[in-house]
Design a protein that fits this description.
The chain is mostly helical and 169 residues long. It has one domain. It contains five helices and two strands. A two-stranded antiparallel sheet has the order 1-2.
């Protein structure tokens, strides 16, 4: 779990630099940049949200693994979560150039690989029989998708009330 602080910092820092220095552009419009204070608050929330997401998925994984015959401790569950999320964390480097189509393409490729990883490593890491590992990996991905949707909703609320996005003219 020592990799999470570094991995979670990659997209947060890249997003901060991208939206304050380069600007965000949708459909070829003039790029809009965020004020540094607004971007810093958003980047910090994003950083801690990624920590919380990894922890939540690991706890859910530990809770469900007993049903599938797994016998590992809660300390070992973040290993699979971190391995699975690593491509997504690394894809955050594309936020240095916050162009929508580029970010979607890079995140889509990373997401595809992140979907593959739990299916290939669940039986070994979680010590679950090969025939049950596919179902377990699918459930973990379902939890991750639900958590992602929850994180997006929380982001909208945070941008509205806690850290409003302030654009620089």
């Amino acid at each position: 779990m020592t990799q999470i602080p570094i991995l979670a910092a990659i997209p947060a820092i890249a997003l901060y630099v991208g939206v304050t220095q380069v600007g965000w552009s949708v459909a070829g419009e003039e790029p809009g940049r965020l004020a540094e204070s607004s971007a810093l608050g958003s980047a910090l929330l994003f950083y801690f949200a990624m920590w919380a997401t990894v922890a939540f998925i690991a706890v859910c994984m530990h809770w469900m693994e007993k049903t599938y015959g797994g016998e590992i401790s809660l300390d070992e569950c973040p290993v699979l979560t971190t391995v699975t999320a690593t491509p997504l964390f690394l894809s955050g480097i594309s936020f240095l150039s916050p162009v929508l189509w580029l970010n979607v393409a890079v995140a889509g490729a990373a997401l595809g690989y992140s979907v593959y990883l739990p299916h290939s490593g669940t039986s070994r890491i979680m010590q679950i029989d090969e025939d049950r590992a596919l179902m377990f990996a699918s459930l973990i991905l379902t939890v991750a998708l639900g958590t992602l949707v929850g994180m997006l909703a929380a982001s909208v609320i945070a941008w509205s009330y806690l850290v409003p996005l302030v654009y620089v003219p």
